[in-house]
Write a structure and sequence with these properties.
two-stranded antiparallel ribbon; two-stranded antiparallel sheet
């Protein structure tokens, strides 16, 4: 019989060192999280304010570009106007607009980490982080730096305890996803706008491809390039209000930062995608395709395999995957039903298959272990960048890996040792790892680690040793 301490680490975010470990039934503890989750996070910007700031930035960048061209040397000189770099002119206004996006990003990082440190529902919070990585976007683009965290706050958190199809639609219509995958500027080749305009950006297939490959069906599940193209045509007209620039801007209406469907940009016609026929219908055509993809058997298998990998083992147990898949299909993608099947799976409670903590997991667990309840967003962003998992900045739309091989390299472990020493020095006053370790690690604490902590030359060293012990590096 595993302990509740095990549940707090495997299913939750790690035991807090300044609180007693939860008692009672560990499975009951996990199930109770499903009704305890509050999706609301206070003190954060919303898509409207970020969109207004982004629009100001885009206008300033355009004027800066024009200024650079005007001040370029005349034709025939060493550097022509065409070759003049836009960065040649950097006005204080443009720099201030850039900083506004970075400030929104830091605020959202702070909200995310502080929610994780104090949440009364750490299992539900972990699920939020899981889905944010499944529907990954990156804050590396100027157009998405302020929106990336809002995808998690506005599209994922409200649907963590709902249906997968509702979360899928909310994500694909969120400005972060539409801007990250360039859907906001996709134009149907035979659309009304394309017929009138002399030049357009044309059809963009990024969002359609990633929905099929990453968000729903998964790779090698029977869809073809023709399905991607047809889906991309169905999604034309899906854009973001308040941000569009150029001739197409007059077609876009709505509150800044909100999803907008623009009929004039949409490719008309019926579509056939993954063997199903969809009648012409504007925005509803794309919605209908997403609704079918959300409950497709391949989607069920793809999604629950990732859940099993996250909670049970790097190599997901086939029996567990099959069990979760049936729960997904029987319930029509009801996520709490899937979570309960996850909790009921004995494979998820096997101490012999620990999961190596990613930098984010380790950072949250470390801060909780040493009793931190609040930390600055900029400091968190800097720490996670150092550890190799910058917040909301994966290297691709596939998100961050969820296996030990990605995070357990020698260099990565050295960085964790350095971070553990700093955390222990800053938060370790009055803390004794000899007392905290049994509470935080529970039955996983080995005699070797307990002895090493007991022989530490200082309390801070003991805390650092606990944070980089083999038991703590895994959950």
């Amino acid at each position: 019989m595993v302990s509740t301490s095990f549940a707090e680490n495997r299913f939750g975010l790690g035991t807090r060192g300044d609180e007693a470990a939860a008692g009672g039934d560990p499975r009951g503890w996990a199930v109770a999280q499903l009704a305890r989750f509050d999706p609301h996070v206070a003190g954060i910007p919303d898509s409207r304010s970020v969109a207004i700031e982004l629009a100001d930035y885009l206008d300033l960048r355009a004027s800066t570009k024009r200024m650079a061209r005007m001040e370029a040397p005349p034709a025939g000189s060493v550097m022509t106007r065409a070759a003049m770099p836009v960065q040649a002119v950097r006005t204080p206004e443009l720099m201030a607009a850039q900083l506004a996006g970075r400030a929104a990003y830091a605020t959202l990082v702070g909200a995310r980490i502080n929610s994780a440190l104090t949440t009364p529902a750490p299992f539900a919070e972990r699920l939020t982080h899981f889905w944010a990585n499944h529907f990954a976007v990156s804050a590396d683009k100027a157009t998405t730096i302020g929106f990336a965290g809002l995808l998690e706050m506005e599209a994922i958190r409200p649907h963590v305890m709902g249906r997968f199809g509702d979360m899928l639609l909310a994500v694909e219509q969120h400005p972060a996803m539409l801007l990250y995958l360039d859907q906001a500027t996709s134009v149907g080749p035979q659309s009304m706008f394309a017929q009138r305009a002399r030049k357009t950006k044309g059809l963009n297939e990024n969002l359609a491809r990633e929905i099929l490959e990453l968000h729903t069906l998964g790779v090698r599940t029977g869809y073809a390039q023709a399905d991607v193209t047809e889906f991309a045509r169905a999604l034309t007209g899906w854009t973001v209000a308040g941000i569009a620039r150029g001739p197409a801007a007059r077609f876009v209406t709505g509150a800044p930062g909100q999803f907008a469907f623009v009929e004039g940009l949409h490719e008309p016609g019926d579509r056939t995608i993954v063997g199903r026929r969809y009648r012409a219908g504007g925005e509803e055509q794309g919605r209908a395709i997403l609704a079918d993809l959300a409950v497709h058997p391949a989607t069920a298998r793809h999604v629950v395999t990732k859940l099993a990998r996250h909670f049970a083992a790097d190599d997901p147990p086939p029996a567990m995957v099959a069990r979760l898949e049936q729960a997904f299909l029987r319930s029509g993608g009801d996520l709490p039903t899937v979570y309960r099947a996850l909790i009921d799976s004995p494979e998820a409670w096997n101490p012999a298959t620990p999961k190596f903590r990613s930098p984010w997991d380790w950072t949250v667990a470390s801060l909780r272990a040493v009793g931190v309840k609040r930390i600055d967003g900029d400091a968190t962003a800097a720490l996670l960048t150092q550890l190799g998992q910058p917040v909301w900045r994966p290297g691709s739309p596939a998100g961050f890996d969820d296996i030990a091989a990605t995070w357990a390299g020698p260099d990565a472990l050295v960085r964790r040792v350095e971070a553990a020493q700093r955390l222990a020095q800053r938060a370790g006053q009055g803390l004794d790892a000899r007392t905290i370790a049994p509470r935080v690690l529970g039955a996983a604490l080995t005699p070797a680690t307990a002895t090493a902590i007991g022989r530490s030359e200082s309390p801070a060293t003991g805390l650092a040793l606990m944070l980089v012990s083999p038991e703590f590096l895994r959950r």
